[in-house]
Amino acid sequence: MIYKEISNFSSDGKELEYLFHPQGIAVVGVSQNPANLGRQFFLPLIQLQYKGNLYPVGLEDSEIAGLKIYKSILDIPEPIDYVICCIPASATPQLVEDCVKKKVKVVQFFTSGFSETGEEEGKELEQKLLDIARRGGVRLIGPNCLGIYCPSQGLTFLNTTPSLARSGQVGFLSQSGG
User: In this predicted structure, what is the pLDDT of residue 168?
Assistant: First the structure.
């Protein structure tokens, strides 16, 4: 779903800085339930000491790891560069609309149920997200995607031990599935 053509990037890569070194991350779809996927994305960011501001977003009126769970990204008072989406596909158009209003730079979809299903409904939903994102200047990663891993920043999608999260000189890009 990333739609910005490579020719539009400058040679210094500054357009990607917010991807690998975001100042604020919101994980949308967090709850206290240990099996919750939003929680499984959120807690490793704390474990690996993510270097920016971190915000859980979910339906519960509570806290996780000592941080308030916000009801919406629009309720977060600080800027957000990167949103990790762990909510049902049907709720994603409103999330992307909110991200446009919040001036979020990128939304990564762990969420599935788009064109990768081969179903017309999923293709239409993905196109709707692309239209909203293009109109609002938001980049999309995914769907059904683990996202960016940048150990020097503490940006992870894995429940990784700190000894495995050392930064080094190797870059790795992967795609699986159709």
Answer: 66
Q: How far apart are the C-alpha atoms of 109 and 84, rounded to whole Å?
A: 6
In a domain, 128, yes or no: yes
Give the CATH number of the domain where residue 133 resides. Answer: 3.40.50.720
Output the DSSP codes for 123-154.
HHHHHHHHHHHHHHT-EEE-SS-----BGGGT
Q: Residue 31's pLDDT band (boundaries 50, 70, 90)?
A: very high
Residue 91 lies in a domain: yes
- What pLDDT, in 10s, does the model give residues 121-176? 999 999 999 999 999 999 998 888 777 766 656 555 555 555 555 666 666 666 66
Closest CA to 58 of 93, 90, 33, 24: 33
- Has this prediction a pTM greater than 0.90? no
Which range marks the domain in which residue 68 is found?
A: 6-164
Q: Give CA–CA dist 161/146, Å, rounded.
A: 17
Residue 5 has a pLDDT of: 42
Q: Is 84 exposed, middle or buried (0-12, 13-18, 19+ CB in 10 A)?
A: buried
Length of the chain: 178
The answer to whether residue 170 sits within a structural domain is no
State the total domains in the chain.
1
Task: Return the sign of the alpha-carbon dihedral for residues 7, 9, 11, 16.
Answer: negative
Q: Quick check: 166 and 151 in contact, CB under 8 A?
A: yes
Q: Is residue 144 part of a domain?
A: yes
